[in-house]
Amino acid sequence: MTLDISNVEKKSTWLLHSTAGGCSGAITRLVCQPFDVLKIRFQLQVEPLSRNSKISKYKSIHQSISLIYKEEGFKALWKGLLPGQFLSTTYGLTQFLVFQKTLALLSITEKELNQTSSVHFLCGVSSAAAATLVSYPFDVVRTRLVAQKSNQIYANMRSVAISMYKTEGIPAYYRGFFPTILQNAFQGGFLFMFYNIFSKFSSTNTSTNTTIHDGYMNSIKQFSSGFMAGVAAKTIVYPLDVAKKRLQLQDFIHSRDGFGKKFMCNGLLDCIYLTIREESISGLFKGLSPSLIKAGFTTALHLTLYEQTLKLLQPLVINY
Prior knowledge:
There is one protein chain. The protein is about 70% helix and about 0% strand. The protein is built from nine helices and no strands.
């Protein structure tokens, strides 16, 4: 990741990265939440995602948005936003903090951070794994809110958390954790690796901003590099994302009447096997279209906002 932090005091470096990561995560979640709602609904549907299907509830992006709006209202496209905000903020501040700490450990000096793609992959894996461990319960809560119709079972984030604790126990907060940490770790590694490659290719460097035009062009380069990195990384790990969502709802199957056939499985491998057997290999890529749109824009916004927030905060912290 092409970040210029050599002029930041060591004592404030980690505060800068965690704050910038948390802010960028929160803003990105607010903007991109509808894509996440569509992706989750698509992933949990066993029936084919096809306009020609007579048995499918959701058939395309446009049809699904219209149906959700008709059945549940406009706000349903932001369903699960509160736990999603907790998830994104916690994930963002942990990810960038751990990434920079790991990058500093693997670098020769504090002022010359290692910019090789392999190092960025390792740093991305470790930072994503740590962020997943910290933020995962919010992901499970968010998935349950998005998976139901409006207030069908759970009224809000608090009711989900309490109900899960009383009826399923603490392990329920980490249901589907294994495929999730695999997915996020590898996605994080590929994400930072590709972003590093694309950034070098487009000569993105935040330290070269000397005019308004330079700053604008640099932001465009950051955004485009983030978009391509997000799409590439998400495509590679997407089957694990589908398996994760289906595993998260195994104790919630009885509450999904009206969403089509109920999917039952036991563990990651069984989930993948049953998905391929019943839906073919394409079943592991259900919801890929909205997911790639979301992944591209989310990653682009997340990384661009992160770098720009970091740039804005640096002089404030240094002067302080």
